[in-house]
Amino acid sequence: MSRIAFLGTGSMNEAILGGLIAAGTDPSQVVATVRRAERAAELAGRHGVVAVAESENPAANPEAVRDAAVVILGVKPVGITDLARSIAPSLAPETVVVSVAAAVSIAQLEAALPAGQPVVRTMPNTPARLGKGVVSVSAGTSTTPEQLARVKSLFEAVGTVVEIPESQVDALSAISGSGPAYAFYLAEAMAAAGAELGLDPELSALLARETVAGAGAMLAEPGADAAALRRAVTSPNGTTERAIAAFDDGGIPAIIATGARAAAARAAEITASLG
C-alpha cells in the first residue's frame, strides 16, 4: 500500500498535501476528502489529486482509507474521535492514522480505533504552508519505528520535523504552535510604536513586517543562535542596547514565559474537555 488519504482538507492538511506533491509524491496516490463539491474541485485542479466531497458521497471517508498506507486526519479537534470511529471498520491493520489536531491525545484517538492500530500524533504550525513549518511527531503505543519514520519523511516536505514524547506536546505547542502569533504580535507592536514616533502608519507596518521576516530568515541560517545574533547588533551604549535594557526592565522575558505557560495550560484543559 502506498496511498495517502487526507480526511478533512483545510488549510493545514492542504499545506501538507501541497508539500508532498512538490516533493515528488505521485498525485494519483493521494486522495483528499472535503465537505463541499466546490472545495473538492479546487483541490483536484490545484494539486491533481483525487478529491471527494462528502456532500456528494457520504461514504467518502471510509472509501478513502481503504488500502491507504497513511491516513491524515485534518478535521477540527472536536470531530476527530467521531471521524476515527466512522473509518475504523475500513482501516487495514497496518494503516498508520495520523492526527494534526491540537489537544487530541493519543489515548483518545486509539480508543476510537481498532485495537493495535498504529497512531501518530503531530503538531504542525502555520508556516508549514510555506514549507517553513515545525512539526512534532509522537508515536502511539502500537506504532513501529518504521511506521514513525515514514510519517516523519512525509512531514519533512513542509518543514523541520522533531520527535518528542507526547508528554511534551503541550509545551511544544506553546512555543512553535502558538509561536507564529507571537511573532505577528511583535510586528504589530513595532508598527504601532513606529507610528507613535511619527512614521506614516503604512510605512511603519512595512518596516516592522520586513524586519521581523528578515530576522527570521537570519535565524533560519545553519548554526544561527538567537542570543549571538542579538548581541551582534547591540553595540555598547548604543540605541539597540538602550531598547533591550528597557525591554528587560519591563519584564518582557518573564511575560513571554507567562504567556507560554498559559498556552500550555489551556492546551491541557482542551484535551481534558475532549476526553
Automatic annotation (TrEMBL):
Keyword Transcription appears in the UniProt entry: no
Protein EC: 1.5.1.2
Pathway given in the UniProt record: Amino-acid biosynthesis; L-proline biosynthesis; L-proline from L-glutamate 5-semialdehyde: step 1/1
Domain Pyrroline-5-carboxylate reductase dimerisation stretches: 166-269
Matching InterPro entries: 6-PGluconate_DH-like_C_sf, NAD(P)-bd_dom_sf, P5C_Rdtase_cat_N, P5CR-like_CS, P5CR_dimer, Pyrroline-COOH_reductase
Residues in Pyrroline-5-carboxylate reductase catalytic N-terminal domain copies: 3-102
GO function terms (MF aspect): pyrroline-5-carboxylate reductase activity
Reactions that this protein is recorded to catalyse: L-proline + NADP(+) = (S)-1-pyrroline-5-carboxylate + NADPH + 2 H(+); L-proline + NAD(+) = (S)-1-pyrroline-5-carboxylate + NADH + 2 H(+)
This protein's UniProt keywords: Amino-acid biosynthesis, Cytoplasm, NADP, Oxidoreductase, Proline biosynthesis
Subcellular location: Cytoplasm
Signal peptide: none
Family designation: Belongs to the pyrroline-5-carboxylate reductase family.
Alphabetized PANTHER family for the sequence: PYRROLINE-5-CARBOXYLATE REDUCTASE, PYRROLINE-5-CARBOXYLATE REDUCTASE 3
Function per UniProt: Catalyzes the reduction of 1-pyrroline-5-carboxylate (PCA) to L-proline.
Identification of the protein by name: Pyrroline-5-carboxylate reductase
